[in-house]
Every structure is written in structure tokens, then in C-alpha cells.
Write a structure and sequence with these properties.
This protein has about 300 residues and is α/β, with parallel strands linked by helices. The chain contains eleven helices and eleven strands. It folds into two domains: about 140 residues, Rossmann fold (3-Layer(aba) Sandwich), CATH 3.40.50.10950; about 140 residues, Isopropylmalate Dehydrogenase, CATH 3.40.718.10. The strands form two sheets. Strands 8-7-9-6-5-10 form a six-stranded mixed β-sheet. The chain has a five-stranded parallel β-sheet with strand order 3-2-1-4-11, with helices on both faces. The longest helix is centred in the middle third of the chain and has 17 residues.
């Protein structure tokens, strides 16, 4: 699967998934779930202040007549109601509406009705970048500030699961660092080497891990040839870019979004069901793509 057009076509061949939206009185979110329904990606249950939801829908000319609407005025209770729908199997995906991220994540982690598991929670971004023949998975750019070695194992496992769902049978994982050689004074390189060994020993499966790698060696075959690194397991053909910390990941993410011609979708993983945690600044296409990625993962689960 090399682009979002192919991914969206794949979603259409899956059974229609249902999305539960927490605090759905948000014009951007209503527009996204409408577009997702029209494109055959997912149906939705809208949980929140029904009066405001219908007022916004009317003002923005968004048809919500075929969506179920559950009236819950209080935001905290709306989120709890919405996540319980997924917890109870009445919906397969959970999406953030007009609620702050902290409150939304609190519902995700609710011990009684939430979606927590014993897995590491991590954020996965799928990017289609003009000029590249393949898509990239970036992780973690938004959730874990300073991942430990154990966290990185969990992040890899989560992202590999998403890559498998997207049709990549054995994704190549590049633990990134500033250099491609191990330097004891640079912990990211030491941990990258450890992750590579764990993969070779069968402790990390379903993928190929090769690190440490500098960004150029991870994504540019020509750079690998120039540096004499053609003997590596990854030679400019990485599928998953594993960042050493949230700063590196977030900087790359925002640089791509604001300077390159890209399409992207995001999903929170490590939960019982896919969680769509988009920003209000994300455009309609990104929100719809995120729902599509979540639907692909839900189908796999």
C-alpha cells in the first residue's frame, strides 16, 4: 500500500466500522465523520450536547440525520459514555471531539469503561510524501516524551501491528539517531543497537530492525551508497522511523506538514481499540485519513 488512495480503497472492502465520538459538538469533527461515512469508511455515534451538535450541523450544512446522537451535556460524562460504547463492543473506534486531550485520555485510561491494556500506549503517524514511492510510519511524535528501552520495544510492536494491518508483511524499522554508529556518549545509539539485537534474538518479531541509523541512511538509498552502508539491513528503504524522543519526532512531523506536500493520518495504539486523537488544527483530509487508518487497524484486530 503506497498511498492513501489505495488505503481508502482497502477500507471500502472491509466491513463498515462504527466510530464513537466524545463531545461531538465540533464543526471540524462533524465534517470529518460525515465525509468518512460518505466515502464508506465508517459510521459514527455522536455523544455530546445534542442541541449544540444539531445547531452546528445546521449552521455548517452537515447532514447528521443518519447518525445516532446520544445527548450528554457534561464533557467528562460524554467522554465516559462514548468510550464505554467501544469498551462494550458497540463501536470499534474512539475519536476525540471538542474536549481537551487530558480529559479525553482520562476516559481512554478509565479502569472500568476505558480501553487500557498492559501494552505501551504510543502514537503512530502514517505519511504519504510526494516524491517517495512508499509511505512512512513515524513514531512516537506526540505521546511519550522520553521513551525508555522498554517503551521503545512497545512502540515498535504497536507500530508493526499498524503496518501489518496496512499490508506491509515485514516492515523495516529504523531506530534513528544523529549517527549510524554506536557511541556510548549518545544513549540513543546504544539503545538502537540493543533493539537490533533483540530483533535478531527473536524478542521483537514481525519486522526487521536495523539501528542506529541516521535519517539519510534510513530513507535515501543514494546516501547509503555514498556512505558505503549498502551492507546494512536497511539501505534507505525503512518503513518505520522510530524517533529517540518526542522532540525529534515532533520536529520532523511538523516540518513535513508545513513544508512538504504530504497526506497523513494518525492513530493512538496500545489500546483495546484504535483511538483517533487529532488536533483542531488538522485539516479535514487528515481527520478522514486518521479514521481510515483506525478502520484498517480495527479490521485487523
Amino acid at each position: 500500500m503506497n498511498n492513501f488512495d489505495a488505503l481508502l480503497e482497502t477500507v471500502k472492502n472491509c466491513s463498515m466500522k462504527k466510530l464513537s465520538v466524545a463531545v461531538a459538538q465540533d464543526d471540524a469533527v462533524l465534517g470529518a465523520v460525515r465525509a468518512a461515512k460518505d466515502r464508506g469508511i465508517a459510521d459514527a455515534i455522536l455523544v455530546g450536547d445534542e442541541d449544540k451538535i444539531r445547531e452546528i450541523a445546521t449552521a455548517e450544512n452537515i447532514d447528521i440525520s443518519d447518525f445516532e446522537v446520544i445527548d450528554v451535556k457534561d464533557n467528562t460524562e460524554a467522554a465516559r459514555t462514548a468510550v464505554k460504547l467501544v469498551h462494550d463492543g458497540k463501536a470499534e473506534m474512539y475519536m476525540k471531539g471538542l474536549i481537551d486531550t487530558k480529559g479525553f485520555l482520562k476516559s481512554v485510561l478509565d479502569k472500568e469503561v476505558g480501553l487500557r491494556t498492559d501494552k505501551t500506549l504510543s502514537h503512530v503517524c502514517l505519511f504519504e510524501i510526494e516524491g517517495y514511492e512508499k509511505m512512512f510510519f513515524l513514531t512516537d511524535v506526540a505521546f511519550i516524551p522520553y521513551p525508555t528501552l522498554e517503551d521503545k520495544v512497545g512502540i515498535i510492536n504497536n507500530t508493526v501491528e499498524v503496518a501489518h494491518a496496512c499490508g506491509i508483511e515485514c516492515p523495516k524499522v529504523a531506530p534513528l539517531a544523529a549517527v549510524e554508529v554506536v557511541n556510548p556518549k549518545m544513549p540513543a545509539t546504544v539503545e538502537a543497537e540493543e533493539l537490533t539485537k533483540m530483533n535478531e534474538e527473536g524478542k521483537i518479531t514481525g519486522c526487521i530492525v536495523d539501528g542506529p541509523l541516521s535519517m539519510d541512511l534510513a530513507i535515501d538509498p543514494e546516501a547509503a551508497r555514498h556512505k558505503g552502508a549498502t551492507g546494512r539491513k536497511i539501505v534507505g528503504d525503512a518503513d518505520i522511523l522510530l524517533f529517540p524522543d518526542i522532540h525529534a519526532g515532533n520536529l520532523v512531523y511538523k516540518t513535513l506538514v508545513h513544508t512538504a506536500k504530504v497526506k497523513n493520518g494518525n492513530v493512538l495504539t496500545g489500546t483495546k481499540a484504535p483511538v483517533i486523537l487529532t488536533s483542531r488544527s488538522d485539516d479535514l483530509e487528515t481527520k478522514v485519513n486518521s479514521i481510515a487508518v483506525a478502520a484498517i487497524v480495527a479490521e485487523k484486530l
